[in-house]
Amino acid sequence: MSHKIKxxxxxxxxxxxxxxxxxxxxxxxxxxxxxGATGVEILPEQNMPGFPNISDADVAWWKxxxxxxxVELTCYDMFLDTKVRKDRLMTDEEQVASIVRDLTLCxxxxxxxxxxxxxxxxxxxEKCVPYAEDLGVHMGVEVHAPWHMEHAWILRTVxxxxxxxxxxxxxxxxxxxxxxxYPPVWRDRFVRQGARPEVAQFIVQQHEEKIMAEYTIxxxxxxxxxxxxxxxxxxxxxxxxxSNPKRLKDFTPYFHHIQAKFYEMDEDAADPSIAYDEAIxxxxxxxxxxxxxxxxxxxxxxxxVQAVDSREQVRRQHLMFERLLGQAEGAN
Amino acid sequence: MFDxxxxxxxxxxxxxxxxxxxxxxxxGYYRGLGLSMxxxxxxxxxxxxxxxxxxRFHDGADALTLDEMETxxxxxxxxxxRAVISVAHPGxxxxxxxxxxxxxxxxxxxxxxxSFCSDSKMLTVG
Lengths: 332, 126
Hints:
The complex is a heterodimer. By secondary structure, chain A is of the alpha/beta class. Chain A contains 14 helices and eight strands. In chain A, helix 12 (276-285) links the parallel strand 7 and strand 8. By secondary structure, chain B is mainly β. The chains are: A alpha/beta, B mainly beta. At the A-B interface, helix 1 and helix 3 of A face loops of B.
């Protein structure tokens, strides 16, 4: 079966090296191009010093850098500081103004997709729709674990988009919602922090059996007398849902970009926890078009014992993408 | 996510005139953040908690107390950027090794609870 899925990379993936000054943004673009990625997702509040005061020269630099490496800018990750003041929340009008500020910069950069943080209220987004339509930006609410495609909060955005009949509001799935197996790098970190191996194995096994997180947390915290690391490891189950990849097809009209979250790729270029081998065929079967944008989030789990090599991890994920996309083509 | 990198290695030094000491630090977050959302930069020296009022934040512009940071709506601590944290500590530090702890408390809007990050390092004053 042919497909229209493209391979991209988010600058989020290189947060370790960018934070420590070991890579520049230009290095990230060059690396993305070197593994055959054709799109780069950016986080202006991470990658653009001086935000939100971004000059035309800055905008030109980003466009030129993308052009130089023959990639396109795929997605703009926005933030919303509703708690910018300690004494009160932002008013609705202030929230809309902040989002419009981001939509405007997104438009100046020529980026078609904006990742909306999942906590942003659907009624606030409704007020932003006319601006997004004028500026030609799709606002995709990030479907991030522990939310999932059919969570009632997510369906509120779908309801608003349907009611308005707009093409500029929808979703943006983060593949962390398909966490089929407890991530080995999480388990190993908790063991280093004092979790007993047998308790860690119990938690991993509970997740294998898809037992509700609260049951396991109670077992570990109360019945097993779990220590701090063990309880923390069990509590992470609240954030590791394995939702049904088959549901993706019901929502394809609502999303144009995917954050391809991962915590670790093994030496055989396989993901030991997230079910890409189910999600990618589901996307192909649905005829979905857009970018799988690598989002490596493993650094925080391994940096206490080993050097982080985000490039190698992203390279392996793209080998997996190529394999799964190719297999699907071969099946035609 | 960046806890172990908060305190910059080899950055501890005495301030001129025996007024206190200073070190460099980074923000433990994957993006820059407005200074008004940094609720606490808690410093502990050799096991002794430093009074909040003794701490100043320096990013190249005017130095700020932690209370002043809370209303610094137009300034940000950029991602990965080093800032200087100074501490009024009469007499300064004795030469040799000191244990320095830093705990940052951030008000991250999308989290229902405050975000804490912390680092502890042995640093040497020459």
